[in-house]
Amino acid sequence: MARVVPETHGEILAAAGRRFALTGYRGTSLQEIARDVGCSKAAVLYHFANKEAILTELMARPIAVLRELDERIVAASGPAEAQRVAAEGFVDLAVRFRREIALLRGEFAELLQEPAFVHIQQISERLIDAFAGHSERPAARIAALVVLAGIAETCGKFVDVPDGELRPALLALVRRALEPVD
Amino acid sequence: MARVVPETHGEILAAAGRRFALTGYRGTSLQEIARDVGCSKAAVLYHFANKEAILTELMARPIAVLRELDERIVAASGPAEAQRVAAEGFVDLAVRFRREIALLRGEFAELLQEPAFVHIQQISERLIDAFAGHSERPAARIAALVVLAGIAETCGKFVDVPDGELRPALLALVRRALEPVD
DNA sequence: TCAGCACCTGACCGATCGGTCAGGCATGCT
DNA sequence: AGCATGCCTGACCGATCGGTCAGGTGCTGA
């Protein structure tokens, strides 16, 4: 007879996800997560090496998808193609993982400093570059950064909007907002 | 002869502004501010009732200007006029006070909860409403929120771009991105 | 000369944080 | 039966946080 294996690991992940989305990563304590799960703080740290490990596991999939998108952008045939791939790919990612992205809640900048996420910074810089059509013109780079940050910051708030509605709305917005590649 | 009055109050404000812009409000301790100024933490709390009072004084002017903008939006003759006033006014505010806005560094959501800033939340909702042309259509509201959040989140990063260049770039972006009022 | 005030200090407070540790309990294998 | 292992607990740790407090210092006006 199969032993009844406790699912504490998964429960911690779920509780942490809910808490992070509510009060942010920094604003959530291990104590609160433990209380939600109904175990001790020490139990949380038995299943995860440290607090950051919880976030890392929660973000593993969206980060993997972001890496794939980065490869596709790098492999694009030219600036126009790179902009198209970046726009569609990023909107897709934002819609699919808007719950996970919401966890970061404006802590992007801080969290990107943490060792587990350093490479994300380089990827986001390449993403902005692609959005700007590889142009150095300030107006192009400003539009790219505003749109990128705006979507990242807000997509988590559209949990009640269905994918089929959010995706085309964001894509249309991106296409309008970004300057066409010259 | 005029007594040599120490300018500690102003120095604290300046140091806090630098620190907040660098590591955020939550991420800055009174200890660090005191060290930068060259005084004790107790001296900081002699000049300011508490940590929040420092932020409040730093944000006093941009908040006052935001209030004026809100009044002009409310007084607008119609949705199209409100959208125009909101767009121009907000871009203007973002450019003028981009250093102060940068202090909040993605802590908007948390800081808006603090008692000193509750009314800001209502204003920002009216701002989004005006951006969306008072429309309830999801696409319009999504575009409004993304653009607003994007500018608020990023304008602080354009310290090296002169006002005369940043303002038209942002205004053009907003006009492209927002849906025209039907 | 002296009281009073503005300004500032170091010591201290309670709370909270992430994280450690020794030990306990139940289960499954030998 | 006995041992190893997975899972978990409560007690504890050092660090840091915002904030308080009693007291000291030096200038000012009466």
What does this structure look like?
The structure is a homodimer of 182-residue chains. Chain A has 182 residues and is mostly helical. Helices cover 73% and strands 0% of the residues of chain A. The first copy, chain A, is built from ten helices and no strands. Chain A has helices spanning 8-23, 30-37, 41-47, 51-74, 79-96, 98-104, 108-113, 118-131, 138-154, 163-177. The longest helix of chain A is centred in the middle third of the chain and has 24 residues, at 51-74. The termini of chain A are far apart. The model of chain A has no long low-confidence stretch (mean pLDDT 92). The interface between A and B is medium-sized, with 35 and 35 residues. Chain B binds a DNA duplex (30 and 30 nucleotides) through helix 3.
